[in-house]
Predict the 3D structure of the following.
Amino acid sequence: MSFRSITGAAFLACTLAPSHAAETPSIEELWALVRDQQARIQELERRAQEAERKLADASEQAAATAAQVEATGDFVETLASSARPAADSRIGGYGELHYNNLDAADPDRDEEQIDFHRFVLFFGHEFNDRTRFFSELEIEHSLAGDGAPGEVELEQAYIDHVVSDKLSAQAGLFLLPLGILNETHEPTTFYGVERNDVENVIIPTTWWEAGAGLTGRNASGLSWQAAVHSGLAIPVAGSNAFRVRSGRQKVAEALASDAALTLRLKYTGVPGLELAGSLQYQSDPSQAGGDGLDSGTLFTAHAIYQRGRFGARGLYGRWDFDGDGVEAAGADEQTGWFVEPSYRFPVGNGDLGVYARYEDLDGARGADQFSQWELGLNYWLHPDVVFKFDYRNRDHDRAADAGRDFDGIDLGLGYRF
Amino acid sequence: MRIVAALLLLSAIGTHAESGQYLKREEFLKLAFATGAPVERVLWVDRGLRASIEEILDHPLSALRIRYWRNDDTTAWILDEIGKEKPITIGVTITNGAIGSVKILEFRESRGWEVRYPFFTDQFTGAGLDQRLELDRRIDGITGATLSVRAVDKIARVALYLHRHATKS
């Protein structure tokens, strides 16, 4: 639309609407209005540019602040990490307090005592990703020394070297891969105040030796262990003749004329299931030739199955010894087994487990030839803290040992960390 | 003595093999996100979040931030938890509040190695979190690997809780 058309339309509008003629602005007024609005637009443009610049500055500052916060977070986390104890060294431990109240057929053999049976400290160090040291130091029966009932024992001190993700090697003083409890015996992991007797009489748990070994594993859950190590020195005379447990030398200036070999095969390829068998051969378990004890072979097999709240475990162990003396004493074959069903369920903030166990032992001594029923419960206040109660009833096989028969209760407290 | 020497020799010849690490971070993320890993995100651990995580872990949490990856309703987390002595590095993917997969990226313990295999980790697939911050299904353990099993269980629960927290808005 041209200027002439606008002025013509304005003139026409003034002619047709005389009542509004007095309110129509003049050209000068219109021009002033346009200039005023132009100034306002320029001011708004200036303000918009300033706002954009401030926004850009704010974004830049926000990014810088975010970077500073991230850097602070990195520093604080690094500081927290370095403030923790040396990450390459670790300590741990476990302990168990026992109270036994047993009534024997022969009252002179009654037993009522309280004993801090085991106080154990672990110490481990990782030299690098592949090579580690692990140790276990134990005080048994609270007090050690001349005339004291307990002992200070070094139960583990070995180097573990990871060869590959499926193979590792060990050398030093280590626990033998036999039975259920010998390698894993923290009190929170088993039922009963006292350990089962198969892993006392037949497998002399806790049993450690010095030597070297290999551990292999594969994706199906199958693993194997092989170790060459020092052996037993079982006495061949006296009240403990041919008693396996009396043959442990505990790697304390131990006789080492004859080594031993232990092999284990274990399958844990189904969650909740463990099947394992071990074989050990000792060329001379007395460490002395011509004494009537020539060689010994130990076979153990166990199964553990935990399905939800239900659990069951069983163990069989058997020694076969060769030698005139051991055969004459009727100790050339020593066996033991147990079965133990259990049921564990949550109670309050913890877990309660009830179990029953039946054992049958045939060791070298009359005192080690018996069957035993056991009923009891564990209460886990925390997964690593347990209170235990059980009732035991033991019957010896030989009439001459009937005075040793007993029944009674045990109370226990155990922990690990 | 010959056997001992052979064992030590055998342990020495394998020193070039990789130790402990079974899955790299990039490999885990590739498995978690078929279309490529999204940009890494950071979740700052505020007081409420810290309290819940520590309730699950049953020990203090030392981290200020937790890094994760998210694509739509799927998140992926890589977290450490100590088994018996050393940290186990565990990767967890979660879609719509249920575990898609649990993978062991790195295992440094001398026992409990079974937890890294699918016969154990596959049990977690599809598990969610109940109101008590427990898994809504039973996970069968491994005898002799109690502490490693416990560590994986805790991290699965922490990852589910973090997923809930990261996707609630």
The longest helix of chain B spans residues 146-167. The two ends of chain B are 67 Å apart (CA to CA). Chain B has five helices and five strands.
